[in-house]
Amino acid sequence: MSSPAPVWDAINGFAAYWALHTAVELGLFDALADQQLPTGQLAAATGVADAADLDALAALLAALDLLDTHGGTWALTDTSRRFLVSTSPAAMTDLVRLSPGSPAAWPRLAGTLRAGGPDAATLADTGDLMPDLVRATAATQRAVAAGVGAELTWPDGAVIVDLGCGSGAWLSALLDAAGPRARGIGVDVPHVIDSVASRLTATTPGIELHAGDYLTAPLPVDRADVVVLAHVLRAEPEARAAALTARAIELLAPGGTLLVADYFVPGAGHTADVYRAARHDLTLALTMRAGTAGRGVTEAQLAAWCADHDAVTTAVIEPVPRQRVHLIQRTTTARQRA
Ligand SMILES: C[S@@+](CC[C@H](N)C(=O)[O-])C[C@H]1O[C@@H](n2cnc3c(N)ncnc32)[C@H](O)[C@@H]1O
Asked: Whose C-alpha lies nearest to ligand 1, atom 27?
């Protein structure tokens, strides 16, 4: 007998998301950071007028494994302590708000799919979120980049180019790994450079930032030892993603490495089991379709774009869980290494 449970799970995903969003907004997890609290005190600490409302919210959070409870007292779980207390080094509290992209993009999704892409207002909404988004992901991206930097062999005075540098997390971590004579060049759109990355020029020696389109912005170098494309390809239409990959490969100095970090999707033609395993990446890909000109990227697409320019993935590393990074080299270099 078929069950409506998967339908309810999808419908209830909306309420589960807003329960989490509301708890973060009310400071509920922060209020429990150092203490367990009974309902009345937790309601007072979060400014909820009626304790019965707090009880209803907290009970749903407990059902979602985001709170624990013993005899009318509320407590954090290991997960909420690590990821939902705003002062935790691994806090995801900003991502709760930002990861779904522009909230206005979702109710428009049917129209977006019929039109073949988001309208200009939706694209602008997504662009407006970018400074907050790159700030919110900076700590994780810095950790990923540090893990990658430790795997690379750095020539003296290495040149690093980061196309779509965002917060500059990759550039600064790779500069740390590459040594004091390295030079880091970042490109991003003007409002991201101005509001986020520009603070790096004062604090990070060797860094230069350029505002413009990463496909066409002139660069002060014509060769780089490391080129970074971190979380940019999935938000681009296929032709631009291919052209961006081509630009990055063409920039590589002999022996240089292109780093591509993304949340890769399986692509078409797989079984439901494959898609179940890729649920997180598929969700992010649909988030791209709802709010950007892209619809995610597959590892097969990346391999084809690289092959067109005599380049190949030589290693895939995951320095932080769910953060896959392709190390790509020209085939001549890859053959010399083999
Ligand atoms: C998801 S963020 C990733 C930022 C950074 N690479 C990281 O991994 O932390 C995508 C970045 O690409 C930038 N971007 C989008 N379109 C761009 C364009 N046409 N030219 C330059 N940068 C662009 C965005 O402003 C944003 O900073």
From this structure: 166
Ligand 1 binding pocket, CB closer than 6 Å:
130, 134, 137, 141, 164-167, 169-170, 187-189, 192, 213-214, 230-232
- The full set of domains in the chain, from first to last, is 5-85 (1.10.10.10), 109-337 (3.40.50.150)
Nearest CA to ligand 1 atom 1: 231
Cβ neighbours around 98 below 10 Å, total: 18
DSSP secondary structure of 207-244: EEEEES-TTT---S-S-EEEEEEES-GGGS-HHHHHHH
Provide the token pair at 35: 């203490």
Tens place of pLDDT for every residue, the chain, 338 residues?
Answer: 899 999 999 999 999 999 999 999 999 999 999 999 999 999 999 999 999 999 999 999 999 999 999 988 999 999 999 999 999 988 999 999 999 999 999 999 999 999 999 999 999 999 999 999 999 999 999 999 999 999 999 999 999 999 999 999 999 999 999 999 999 999 999 999 998 877 888 788 889 999 999 999 999 999 999 999 999 999 999 999 999 999 999 999 999 999 999 999 999 999 999 999 999 999 999 999 999 999 999 999 999 999 999 999 999 999 998 899 999 999 986 666 66
3-state secondary structure of 255: strand
